[in-house]
Amino acid sequence: MLDLERLRLDTPGCLERVFLDSAGSSLPPQPVLATVIGHLRREAEVGGYVAAAERADDLTAVRTSIAQLIGATAPEIALVDSATRAWCDFFTSIPLRPGDRVLLSQVEYASNAITALHRAKETGAVVEVVPSDPTGRIDLDALERMIDDRVTLVSLVHVPTNGGLINPVREVVDLAHRHGALVLLDACQSVGQLPIDVGELGVDALSATGRKWLRGPRGTGFLYIRGDLARELKPMAMDLHGAQWLSPDEYLPAADASRFELWECDVAARLGLGVAVDYLLSIGVDYAARAIATGADRIRSELGALPGVRLHDLGTDRCGIVTFTIDGTEPSSIRDRLADSRITVTVSGRSSTLLDMSARGLDAVVRASPHYFVSDGDLSRFAEAVGQLTRE
Ligand SMILES: *Cc1c(COP(=O)(O)O)cnc(C)c1O
């Protein structure tokens, strides 16, 4: 049994407020904070190169820890500075010819869609959207009808930024692979809150961030690339870390996913990410997933019982993101009023998931995302505060 009180004491921020924005930027635990600050201090004492050399083993271990978390191997992991960087770096390394097709899902994240559209414009490829089924999950029948050998890549969002939906992955991968298409999974909202095994999911690549459910520092993220696939890919940018300069006109890209890494990075943040992942591994992803789901289910049932509150989560299995609106009150004003009571939620706007929000006629939703460190008392305060808003 894990002691929630101990986990909360490790999380200074959660004692001051009811923190329900782990889908946005979570509260790092004390060991992450100590690592990041400690390393910045050390850089100031001895210089960044010496400080990094002192932590060489720990820096190497970051990829190993991430690999362990998602059932991969260290050579399949590239450390980058955000989920968007990971997604875009992989996407832009796939050669696209005129007429090639790229499929996105209806809950696609804005930054991914923008990169896909941008690249399609340059290459003559076409971007198409696989609709959602009536439950909100990706419509597998529609995907089956749409997919053919001209589809180069299917982009799937595991959990969207604007709701508790969990998309099926394996079924999409099987359909895509039957037609020779790659699957890139945006796991930004699932890594750290759901158990992930890339072997079971079968995806070709996966992008994730550090600051959300992993509770790592900002400016961190990673890209997973399956097996030897990285060898066939041509990153848009490579430097003296991702490749070797052999002669005046020859260079040799790294054989593994590290060809997607650049040499310079925020070493303190990267060490912090490693500690965040190890912290989660020591707690257990299953524990985290259960606690998060329990908190979110409780929010859904308590808010769902309030008059005038509408819940907007789609799907059949739901996870730790709860979205809602209150009739007659702007989502931003709900967020601000809750902030006055030291309750942190955020607003997810139409432009982040344009296709899905437009299809549902939604402009903005309030998003509450409880991590395992949120207590029952916190959830009661939250439900009470929302109830208060509905009565005004
Ligand atoms: C937050 C988010 C991203 C972007 O992550 P960054 O680390 O900010 O680049 C991508 N996809 C989804 C679904 C997200 O919620």
UniProtKB/TrEMBL annotation:
Keywords: Aminotransferase, Lyase, Pyridoxal phosphate, Transferase. The lineage of its organism: Bacteria, Bacillati, Actinomycetota, Actinomycetes, Mycobacteriales. Transmembrane segments: none annotated. It comes from Rhodococcus parequi. Its EC number is 4.4.-.-. GO terms for molecular function: transaminase activity. It catalyses: S-(hercyn-2-yl)-L-cysteine S-oxide + AH2 + H(+) = ergothioneine + pyruvate + A + NH4(+). The gene is egtE. Belongs to the class-V pyridoxal-phosphate-dependent aminotransferase family. EgtE subfamily. This is Probable hercynylcysteine sulfoxide lyase. The keyword S-adenosyl-L-methionine does not apply. Its cofactor is pyridoxal 5'-phosphate. The modification N6-(pyridoxal phosphate)lysine is found at residue 212. Residues 18-381 form the Aminotransferase class V domain. It is an enzyme of class 4 (lyase). The keyword Transferase applies. Gene3D superfamilies: Aspartate Aminotransferase, domain 1, Type I PLP-dependent aspartate aminotransferase-like (Major domain). Pathway: Amino-acid biosynthesis; ergothioneine biosynthesis. Probably catalyzes the conversion of hercynylcysteine sulfoxide to ergothioneine. It holds the Pfam family Aminotran_5. PROSITE patterns: AA_TRANSFER_CLASS_5.
